[in-house]
């Protein structure tokens, strides 16, 4: 009995081991074809190489969200847009036709932009919770960030999940969070910084200008430069080109003057951007420009997060290491930025933009910055050095021009060409010495091309002075009619000779040329008298000058004169003059 029971057990186990793999394979095949039934929303996470990955902590498949770089700054400082990534995020069925709210953070590098963006992510994922900042022992994840002095973010990154938010008026909008490369790092040119800042400002509806400790004058000047670089790329419009600008002043150290938060920030910003009559014109223009670019400007003053955050190389974002005053104001700042009633839908020329439309604007704007239509922004040193050298060029050129006017300008008499050339060489050397004697920024190498520019412009002026001097030469002024008279005389003689010897065709051709030349001479005289049809008169002068120069170069005039003399001899030989009859006295002598 026991042996039979053992045999039955072995048979059952054999059947299980034989059919179990087939059953598992079938189940896996069916599951792979079925849609993903996971009810879990996308969760924030750190960088991942793949758009989807399996969680080791969940039994269900979870879609991982993360930062995606859509604008890439290459090593040669050119720009590339990852259209596939942009389309994957903004053209998904859930958001592509929703009006978009684009929130961007921009500013100098290593000032905590990505750190701030991660708190925005916490709010967007937990905005329904009272204490949305999370556990005090939880590390801060999301956009990649770290402490230190080297840059972290490059180009423009956007969060791969677009958040759908219900506004108080009942509309559902798509909120896009965008992190940008910091300006003025050691590896980026000014054009790189200007392009990234300008592009993020053009795309966003809320631009957070992240600053440290204060709003200084150079911060406003850089903002003016970057926004103007963005406005150049946009179509001209009577409306303000950009929407909301928020000055976020980090590490604010003067709460006794202006309190932390938006109220103190508003009073502080009003003082900073105030235009007064006793300000220098340059300072007034900066402030007027900023006001003309944005429809809404506000400010928020945020305290320092604490020494542990600033000095601990192992700081990972745990709230327990951040000062309570910072957390208190952070809990005010993030809802102030991202609460549904404060979200500004992206507008261009007064039209609300959807995620689908934002993709097209992204593509259109990056094409402009990839080309060479826009001027390259210059550093303050380079711009000052250029202005300094151009001023030296203008001074030296003006000196040359004034001295040449004393030599041959105005009512000065005609000067021999050789003397004019010698005077030109002397004054040109004097102008070059004057240029080199001016203290200029940029160094010798930088100034060399401006010296070449000066020499080229002086040579152009010299050509004008040659023409002006030649116009005073009476023989030069009579060159055109003299040339035409010579042509008329020659064709007249040739017509008579060739007609006499029976070459009627050549005679007719000469007569035709004679008639055309005579008409040309009369036309030239009318133009000189009336001042009309000056272009035609210039053509006649050029043709006459070419004939004159050709004659003087190849001794053609001498040959024409010799031919005319020969023809005159032949003419008198063919048509001898009647001889006078001898008078009576002569007859007597004969």
UniProtKB/TrEMBL annotation:
Gene Ontology terms for molecular function: GTP binding; GTPase activity
Principal subcellular localization: other
Domain of life: Eukaryota
Signal peptide limits: 1-26
One cellular component term from this protein's GO annotations in UniProt: axon
Domain GB1/RHD3-type G span(s) in chain numbering: 97-342
Catalytic activity as recorded in UniProt: GTP + H2O = GDP + phosphate + H(+)
Positions of transmembrane segments: 482-500, 506-527
Matching InterPro entries: G_GB1_RHD3_dom, Guanylate-bd/ATL_C, Guanylate-bd_C_sf, Guanylate-bd_N, P-loop_NTPase
UniProt keyword list: Acetylation, Cell projection, Coiled coil, Endoplasmic reticulum, Golgi apparatus, GTP-binding, Hydrolase, Magnesium, Membrane, Nucleotide-binding, Phosphoprotein, Signal, Transmembrane, Transmembrane helix
Bilayer topology: Multi-pass membrane protein
Localization in the cell: Cell projection, Axon; Endoplasmic reticulum membrane; Golgi apparatus membrane
Pfam families, sorted: GBP (PF02263), GBP_C (PF02841)
Role noted for this protein: Atlastin-1 (ATL1) is a membrane-anchored GTPase that mediates the GTP-dependent fusion of endoplasmic reticulum (ER) membranes, maintaining the continuous ER network. It facilitates the formation of three-way junctions where ER tubules intersect. Two atlastin-1 on neighboring ER tubules bind GTP and form loose homodimers through the GB1/RHD3-type G domains and 3HB regions. Upon GTP hydrolysis, the 3HB regions tighten, pulling the membranes together to drive their fusion. After fusion, the homodimer disassembles upon release of inorganic phosphate (Pi).
Family per similarity comment: Belongs to the TRAFAC class dynamin-like GTPase superfamily. GB1/RHD3 GTPase family.
Subunit structure: Monomeric and homodimeric. The homodimer, transiently formed by two molecules on opposing membranes, is the active form mediating ER membrane fusion. Interacts with REEP1, REEP5, RTN3 and RTN4 (via the transmembrane region); these proteins are involved in endoplasmic reticulum tubular network organization. Interacts with ZFYVE27; both proteins are involved in endoplasmic reticulum tubular network organization. Interacts with ARL6IP1; both proteins are involved in endoplasmic reticulum tubular network organization.
Name of the featured protein: Atlastin-1
Underlying gene: ATL1
